[in-house]
Amino acid sequence: MIAFQGVIGANSHVACLEAYPNIQPQAYETFDAAMEAVTSGEAALAMIPVGNSYAGRVAEIHNIIPKTKLSIVGEHFSRIEHYLCGVQGSNLNDIKEVYSHPQALMQCQKSIEKLGLKANKTNNTALAAQQISEKQDKAKAAICSKLAAEIYGLDVLQKNFEDDSSNTTLFLTFAKEPIDPDPEKYKDIITSMMFTTRNIAAGLYKALGGFATNNVNIIKLESYIPETESAQAQFFISFEGSPRQKNVQMAIEELGFFTKRTKLLGVYPAAKKRSVK
User: Fold this and answer.
1) 72-88: per-residue pLDDT in tens?
2) Closest CA to 60 of 31, 84, 82, 102
């Protein structure tokens, strides 16, 4: 079983079906609950969104990842296609209000403004579809996936409602045990870590220097302020290669020398849609 946050028909549900078509998806109310399901053994995997090409990172996740004991074992890029959906028999001229998750509303902001709709927030895109189905009000619509529209019996009023046709969300897959992909077998491997720099001049610059000198390409670097340590930023880094490779080993060693703490989050094959070379 693979856990995801939300309800049946959510974009995370769609991503689970895309990445793991042979594993049964299971919905959980929160990200914490989805990841706890893996920790407890109730689920084998958890599929968690960490960032969107249009709306940016999912901030809530960056407060969860440092505390989890789970490992990242995969990534998946899901093309997010938003559909404006209403109750059966409704049309665009009927709609006055739209409901969806804040991220979806942000990703469809121009389309919403063009139609002059009032935007209302919900906890999930599929939950919005469920609520619209229950209300049976032709003046209200949901921004949701096509799957959610089918599940909750809604009519699609406008497809590709998102402002950016390249709208894509990156999902990370978490498991209880880490994996160690062989660089000889996998062409592209990614290593993800967390670290906190020492309180020294140019600390971040020095910490990252080893990646340049050892020819290791950084593909993501994000800073954030942990809830419990408001005075000091931590960093999430992803880079090409495996710790099995000598140049990657040396880069990690130099990172450790200039940091207070490091945490290996996972080593995993790059998604097919990612061109890291």
Assistant:
1) 999 999 999 999 999 99
2) 31
Q: Indicate where the chain has its CATH 3.30.70.260 domain(s).
A: 189-269
Could you name the CATH architecture of 2-80+168-175? Answer: 3-Layer(aba) Sandwich (3.40)
Q: Could you report the per-residue pLDDT of 228-262, keeping only the tens digit for each?
A: 655 577 899 999 999 999 999 999 999 999 999 99
pLDDT band at 276 (very low <50, low <70, confident <90, very high): very low
Q: Is the pLDDT of residue 42 over 70?
A: yes
- Which residue's structure tokens are 């999902």? 171
Element (H, E) at 266: strand 259-269
